[in-house]
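Lab notebook, bench 4. Still working through the backlog of constructs that have no structural model yet. Next entry is a single chain of 239 residues. Request: give me the structure tokens for it.
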Amino acid sequence: MRLNSLQPPFNNPRIRQAALYATNPQEYVDAWAGGDTGLVTICRSFYICSSPYYSEAGFPRFDLAKAKQLLKEGGYDGTPVVILDASENAQIHPASLVAEQQLTAAGFKVDVQAMDWATVVSRRGSKEPMNKGGWSVFISGPGGLDMMLPINHLGLRSNCEKAWFGWPCNAEIEAMRNAFGDTADAAERKKLAEQIQLQATQTVPYVPLAVAYQFRASRADLRGMLTPPAPVYWNVERK
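Model written out:
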């Protein structure tokens, strides 16, 4: 669940933290898969589960009372949370409805706006306020390869205007990401990755929801098939 760090209410880190504590990932898993089937599963980390730097360090559990407390501490004034709902998408639409329910339960005023995915892709690039076509939240499913290493982590990059849609801005995360890239020491990299995770639980550039695994199949007489993270059809040949 990507949050817009530029515009109210999520330009306030306390209020972004409230969204994190208000998130019960099990309800997303239930909405997608009718329960944990192993194909869609909870992952309490900013790093994809099973990746080298996966850690649950500092990652909070669902706590609605804490979410309400953070909203109060952050001075939330009822500014609507605009969710861009790709209503034709079988994964994003139910997730958008779960997000609406959970954020509303925490005390947010929520405005779910239905559209197709192409419109979401166009509109999420807007840095305008809500009354001029802006947004607060969109839900997406980047590939796991984009969420494994601090140095190229799509969601954790916090380099302000150069960051992914939502534009989180945090000098500490960026300094640690640079340090990660500058060292080849495995222990130091592990330490930096965990420190970045701890900082991200405070700045909340996005809210991890779950991990979905996919099956793919190909003919037994094909070789050279690559699927990172989607099928690539060059250099394929038959045995």
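Notes after review: Strands lie at 2-3, 40-41, 81-86, 110-115, 137-138, 211-212, 222-223, 237-238. DSSP finds seven helices and eight strands in the chain. Flag for follow-up if needed.
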